[in-house]
């Protein structure tokens, strides 16, 4: 779960603070990934030809609880078989909102057939402070043998001073929560991440060991231009640049491309690994996001996956379709 375990397809920063530390969409995706892993399946990289997620904006999917400040939102996901094109399984994600319409619980359930009962799989629970800031989240999985929830890890969010956030993750042990990693983040007055430092907990020495530093670069208008990730070199006692993400924008400031580059700083070599390409309609709505990876053998970009977005007449997102390419460019 640690952001330090990022491979070449991951972003070097683990959160976006201007969206309450992590957007609800990312929380949902986390829950989906955990649910698929719990079932022994996969998502994104090997789910194909498509996974359809229907947004919960209709009257059928959004219903009010007896308390006017609370509501329940439901998202249905269909997992298609790669070869037959038939629906292989169904997932339902329920989001419970509390005061100020902040999500308090996200629950994932699944079933193989439409007539089967829903079986719970993964749950994320959130707590907030008086300033509507998230202070904790706890992820649990459903134990089919004991018919109860069992925690697997939790994350705490601390705000010691303005402009600083400390995120700490704890793994579930037999009778206690064991610290795993923490991230110290500096934020400007506009809520943008300026830099962050990641630490691992050393159990043997009982102290935090610094590992990774990330720095963000913005232009005068506030658009992010570059993210750089540095690895701490314990032998040389200095930071070593290991990767960066570069952003390219269009005439209307729309994001066109996001490119990841690995760096061999000692030898001055840059290795482009992957990129995302974004396309927009005439009304400036993003209608697709395509992931491509660089093939060193054939010196070309290969298609990896694609997301296609559908909107209703009012402009609200209604459907996201995930596709995996089996054919290279």
The helix content is: under 10%
Kindly state the number of beta strands: 19
Beta-strand percent range? over 45%
Order of helices and strands: HEEEEEEEEEEEEEEEEEEE
Global Rg? 21 Å
Oligomer: single chain
* Helical/strand content category: mainly beta
- Counted by DSSP, the helix tally is 1
Which spans of ≥5 residues are poorly predicted at pLDDT below 50?
1-22, 38-69
Tell me the distance between the termini: 33 Å
- Overall average pLDDT: 80
Largest sheet descriptor: 18 strands, antiparallel, barrel
Shape: globular
Any overview of this molecule?
This protein is mainly β. It is built from one helix and 19 strands. It has an 18-stranded antiparallel beta barrel. The longest helix is centred in the first third of the chain and has 16 residues, at 24-39. The protein is globular, with a radius of gyration of 21 Å.
Attribute tags:
single chain; 329 residues; mainly beta; 18-stranded antiparallel β-barrel; 1 helix; 19 strands; 5% helix; globular; disordered N terminus
Question: Which secondary structure elements does this structure contain, and how are they paired or packed?
Answer:
Elements: H1 24-39, E1 50-54, E2 62-64, E3 71-80, E4 87-97, E5 103-111, E6 119-128, E7 134-143, E8 148-158, E9 164-172, E10 177-187, E11 193-202, E12 207-218, E13 224-233, E14 238-249, E15 255-264, E16 269-280, E17 286-295, E18 300-311, E19 317-324
Antiparallel strand pairs: 1-3, 1-19, 2-3, 3-4, 4-5, 5-6, 6-7, 7-8, 8-9, 9-10, 10-11, 11-12, 12-13, 13-14, 14-15, 15-16, 16-17, 17-18, 18-19
